Amino acid sequence: MVAGSRSLEDRLSLARRAVLTWMLIILAETVHGTLRELFIAPSLGDLRARQFGVLVGCGLTLGVAWFLIRWIGERRAAPLLAIGAVWVLLTLVFEFCLGRALGASWDRILSDYDPSRGGFMPFGLAFMLVTPWLAARARGLTTGEVP
């Protein structure tokens, strides 16, 4: 096998581990969101609680990624960023589907993605994009170079 190339089986295994890691991230985020709504939103207010939640969510995402990045098994910057892009896409689909399933209007859902309305989600998603690379970098698994 050529250095740097992976078999289809290896790529599928990597994709499976990346998606399973995202599932753990989204589980942690869902528990966090539930706790935020129950305990933080009543005192901070809905918008401030959601803004605070993005910051906490970034920490949760990085923590899960840091813990599992060796298991994911990728060290190269470009594939790590691709994993982050998949996590962002899956998160968007999850957020929109969950929001609609819980009866939220499109306006309410999209407000989280609009910084002019106080939405911090674009910053959280940008952080999620680079999180696999950051976790690998923090664990000494990759260089600091991003393509």
Structure description:
- With 147 residues, this protein is mainly α.
- The protein has one domain (11-137).
- Helix content is 77%, strand content 0%.
- Helix 1 (8-44) runs antiparallel to helix 2 (46-72), helix 1 crosses helix 3 and helix 3 (77-101) runs antiparallel to helix 5.
- It is elongated, with a radius of gyration of 17 Å.
**Portion in strands:** under 5%
The percent range for helix content is over 70%
Q: Mean of residue pLDDT? A: 93
Order of helices and strands: HHHHH
Low-pLDDT runs of 5+ residues are none
Protein structure class: mainly alpha
Radius of gyration, in Å, reads 17 Å
The tally of helices reads 5
How many domain modules?
Answer: 1
Number of strands: 0
Distance between the termini: 24 Å
- Which of globular, elongated, flat, extended, rod-shaped describes the shape? elongated
Largest sheet: none
How is the topology of this model organized?
Blueprint (H helix, E strand, L loop, with lengths): L7 H37 L1 H27 L4 H25 L4 H6 L9 H18 L9
